[in-house]
Amino acid sequence: MNRKINLHQLSQLSPAQRQSLLTRVEGDLSDFETKVKPIIAAVRQDGDVALARFANQFDKSPVTADTLMATPQDYAEAERTLAPDVKAAMEFAATNIRKFHQRQKPEEKWMMEVSPGAFGGERWSAIASVACYVPRGKGAFPSVAMMTSIPAKVAGVGRVIIITPPGPNGKIDDATLVAARMAGVDAVYKAGGAQAIAAVAYGTKTIPRVDKVVGPGSPWVAAAKRLVSHLIDVGSPAGPSEVIVLADDSVRGELAALDLLVESEHGPDSSAYLVTWSKRVAAEAMAALPKYLAKMSAQRAEFAASVLGGPLGGIVLAQDEDEAIQFCNDYAPEHLEVLSENPHRYLDKLKHAGEILLGKHTPTTLGNYVIGPDHVLPTGGWAKTASALSVFDFMKRTTIAEVTAAGYATLARHAHALAKYEGFDAHANAVSEMRETLLGRNDTDTP
After folding, report:
1. Does 113 qualify as catalytic in the annotation?
2. Are 42 and 99 part of one and the same domain?
3. Is 321 exposed, middle or buried (0-12, 13-18, 19+ CB in 10 A)?
4. Which domain holds residue 424?
5. Is pLDDT at 447 greater than 50 in this prediction?
6. Which among 266, 335, 352, 416 is annotated as catalytic?
7. Domain match, 55 and 15 both
């Protein structure tokens, strides 16, 4: 393979050229939305029959309307056939994921006295039902199954299901089924793409309608989520993979090149940049990339090379540290890996990222699989306002308030003034002498 790797020198780019480096493939989903609309309409009308038809058409899988749900036999076969080392790795990862998200879980209820006799607080409770989308098109992703379903179970979600595309053999990936069992998932269904999102938004005979769907997916999945967002909570955007490897002059460029390939191998719609102000690091990385690509499978190497030589990737050479960090913050990557002998010196300056991985011993691979924090992260620049998937995504807050008789008079006086100013008569009347008469004046007297 002899693809050219991009080298972008920030100081030589026009504002439009710099902006193009920040653009994501999922930024404009209008074409996908047009294609997805009839798929959603078919699932809404024909339910399981449509799901089976699309599995045959898109996944080349012999699924029927009667075989959409994984059976006990499917789980048993997956347990028998999954390699022991893979199962052991999944158990290790599941333990860390569960431990991290248990630490996240908030206090169930709290109250505080905000002023004399007036109390405010919050109560946290779990969402009733959630679907976890586990993609499969460019590989099998049991890690996604764990990263989505374990925090949902930790949060206490009543019903957790997995929707995932079936393979050409009509079966669900073995490791995904084992991951579902480890997490305590209630059911796994053979449905992927836009049709799966439609199924959990509308419900079918086999697949239940749920309150929320989480998990990463293709632009087809992202477009479907947008189109059903009035029916179901679709969570934070989680589109094609993206990474920035930020490297300073204290590390080898070969190491930066090694880590740059991790997210770029996901597919041609991924984005991956090495950002550095060290010409040495850039040159060493450029020289090392062909050697590393040669050690990958033909398909993964083609994916990675197409990203690094395309409009969404390559090496970005900045004039100095400030320019490099500004580019990172403007990009707001899904994954931000900081390669440095002293990575913490940059941490406070890096404002926007789904996750920040610090140091030479924390490659994205470890974050994706086994450290414990969630790898379902905001993409498309949404890390400026959105966060990594967590137990909070599977819970909701209800505010609680109570005012005592002793505290009522002061609050009522101030509320009455504001209600009158805004012109809301009923608001004002509810805290006027009319209420005091109904309660009995003594009830509101301050002792």
Report:
1. no
2. yes
3. middle
4. 404-444
5. no
6. 335
7. no
Say whether 142 sits in a helix, a strand or coil.
helix
pLDDT score at 2? 63
Residue 355 bears catalytic tag = no
Would you say 358 and 72 are in contact if contact means Cβ atoms under 8 Å apart?
no
Number of separate domains in the chain:
3
Taking residues 349-361, what's their average pLDDT? 97
Q: pTM of the entire structure?
A: 0.90
- Specify if 115 maps to a domain: no
Tokens matching residue 183: 């997490």
- pLDDT of residue 97 exceeding 80: yes
The alpha helices in 309-404, defined as continuous H runs, are 321-331, 344-347, 364-369
Catalytic residue (choose from 26, 263, 265, 334): 334
Q: Which of 25, 176, 154, 28 is nearest to 96 (CA)?
A: 154
Dihedrals φ, ψ of 13, to 5°? -90, 140
Structure tokens at 259: 């880590």
* Residues 98-107, mean pLDDT to the nearest whole number: 96
Task: Report the CATH number that the domain containing residue 59 is assigned in CATH.
Answer: 3.40.50.1980
Residues paired with residue 110 on neighbouring β-strands, in sequence order: 122
